[in-house]
Amino acid sequence: QVQLVESGGGLVQAGGSLRLSCAASGRSFGSSTMAWFRQAPGKEREFAAAIPWSGGSTAYADSVKGRFTISRDNTKNTVYLQMNSLKPEDTAVYYCAARVGSRYFSASQYPYWGQGTQVTVSS
Predict the structure, then answer these.
(1) For position 63, what pLDDT does the model report?
(2) Is residue 108 classed as helix, strand or coil in its secondary structure?
(3) pLDDT 10s digits, 39-78
(4) Quick one: average pLDDT of 94-103?
(5) What distance in Å separates the CA atoms of residue 57 and residue 119, rounded to the nearest whole number?
(6) ∠82-88-93 over CA atoms, to 5°?
(7) Is it the case that residue 103 has pLDDT exceeding 80?
(8) Cα separation of 20 and 11, whole Å?
(9) Spatial separation of the C-alpha atoms in residues 14 and 33, rounded to whole Å
(10) Pick the residue with more confidence: 101 or 42?
(11) Bridge partners (DSSP) listed for residue 33
(12) Do residues 107 and 15 make contact, with C-beta atoms less than 8 angstroms apart?
């Protein structure tokens, strides 16, 4: 059974930084895509960033490009999301997700999800 456990959320002032972690377990992730999504109150869950577990090109939503960096540490089975220059509009619950195969930008294509971690950016 796949388990994804996020951590690292919190309250930060605008312009600040946070690093989210997603610890993955329960299967081999060699052919998987790992992604971060986020969901603000009253809004749909949206794609933020994705990375192949085996390495390769990353992908970002336009809204976070240049500010967020996704990375992974295969030795720790962990995916990270480094978030810099945070804005109040980045406030959301951030979810780690996984799927076997190449990346998609739609949440419906990811069968495995973590429980989410709250990120709040104050102005």
Answers:
(1) 97
(2) helix
(3) 999 999 999 999 998 878 999 999 999 999 999 998 999 9
(4) 92
(5) 26
(6) 60
(7) no
(8) 12
(9) 30
(10) 42
(11) 52, 99
(12) no
- Give the CA radius of gyration of the chain: 13
In angstroms, the CA 72 to CA 32 distance is: 12
pLDDT level of residue 37 (50, 70, 90 thresholds): very high
Distance, in Å, from the CA atom of 79 to the CA atom of 14, rounded to the nearest integer, reads 24
What mean pLDDT value characterizes the chain? 94
94 φ, ψ to 5°?
-100, 130
Token pair belonging to 57 = 């090109």
Extract the tokens encoding 50: 């994705």
CA nearest to 52, candidates 67, 37, 74, 68? 74
Tell me how many helices (H) and strands (E) the chain has.
Answer: 0, 11
For the record, the structure tokens of 80 come out as 């990270």
